[in-house]
Amino acid sequence: MASLFPETDDMIWTDVSEPEMVEGSGAVFGRSWRYDFEVGEFVMSPTRKVTPVDEKEAWVIWCEKAIRTPRYRHLIYSRDYGSELEELIGSDYDHALQESEIRRMVTETLLADARTESVDQFLFTWEGEACHFSCQITSIRDETEIIESVVI
């Protein structure tokens, strides 16, 4: 009987690499797909396939998604995932207190992931009641990236 899965010389089989684990940290750097947060969709290639990203960009996308996802709202996520930035919307706190809370909430959100070493260098810009902020994130591999977000 002919094999259901024939192998010929012109077939090239590649192994899918296992996610890399950083020794002693419990952190797994894996793959992900490019996501456009402004459009709210995965980025597609010209052949209509979801575009993969490297391990660093996968971590950065995780960080951005964690900041944008309200904590405790979606049952699919653990209670450690997401941020509580929505609590600041419409609050009567002065700018200094709101900036302090944004620093605390974002840092707490991102340090929940074992891949994140530190969150610092916050910069705040106010436009009316909207607060634009950016911060630098550093992975346990010493890779850094700047994340920008808005709290209204």
From TrEMBL:
InterPro entries: Sheath_initiator. It holds the Pfam family Sheath_initiator. It comes from the Bacteria. This is DUF2634 domain-containing protein. It comes from Paenibacillus uliginis N3/975.
